[in-house]
């Protein structure tokens, strides 16, 4: 064993002392290194994949929430600028899916609770069957909540309506309204369902009256575009990469 060890040391010293003109020892045989490993399903690969995707999913979901909030805020501003009430503004909602969890492919759903909100987003033509009865605002009292009465509500709460067909204009729905001593039209009675309101309507039917048009009939109404929620969503979607980059750095 000592002789074998001495020879190994001598050979190592001889290799270190090779002169430049001498050739290095030639190594024969297959020198390639091969490694083989195995794992059980559900252990190694899933752990590595989860560690890689978790921060990505977290950043993507956070970025989608920022995008949804931006779209909702800008959309509500657009609705407000068109003159719609705060109730209409708050009816615009944004929901990020999946709820309460991070995902590699999150999604945002932007919607308005009013079913016909798309009419004011895109514009539309509303056809009558056969007519639409539009209020003549100067002659029509406001109902509870500041809304204009419909013909049906007017007939039920104020008094009967008569159809007036004209040869030189659209048809009218006319109410017989009380007039004062000088012939001027008095205020229409309240539509409130109270004792005072019922007395006023009772007196209304007994006073001297004259016809007053309160609704005009048209075959259709063209409603133009009022707000731009779709544009707000597109602008917010374009900001998603920036939101993602910010969150992935934080993660």
Describe this protein with a few key phrases.
two-stranded antiparallel sheet, 20% strand, single chain, 4-stranded antiparallel sheet, 251 residues, alpha+beta
Structure description:
The chain is of the alpha+beta class and 251 residues long. Helices cover 41% and strands 20% of the residues. It contains 8 helices and 6 strands; from the N terminus they run H-H-H-E-E-H-E-H-E-E-H-E-H-H. It has helices at 2-16, 44-81, 86-90, 118-122, 151-157, 195-206, 229-238, 240-250; strands spanning 92-97, 107-112, 124-135, 162-164, 172-178, 209-223. The strands form 2 sheets. It has a 4-stranded antiparallel beta sheet. Strands 1-2 form a two-stranded antiparallel sheet. Helix 2 (44-81) packs antiparallel against helix 7 and helix 2 (44-81) crosses helix 8. Mean pLDDT is 78; it is low at 1-20.
Please, what is the average pLDDT?
78
Measured by DSSP, the beta-strand proportion falls in 15-25%
Low-confidence stretches: 1-20
Shape: rod-shaped
Number of helices: 8
- Estimated helix fraction: 40-55%
Spatial order of the strands forming the largest sheet: 3-6-5-4
The computed structural class is alpha+beta
What is the string of SSEs from the N terminus onward?
A: HHHEEHEHEEHEHH
Q: Rounded to an integer, what's the Rg over CA atoms?
A: 41 Å
Distance between the termini: 60 Å
* Largest sheet report: 4 strands, antiparallel
Number of strands: 6
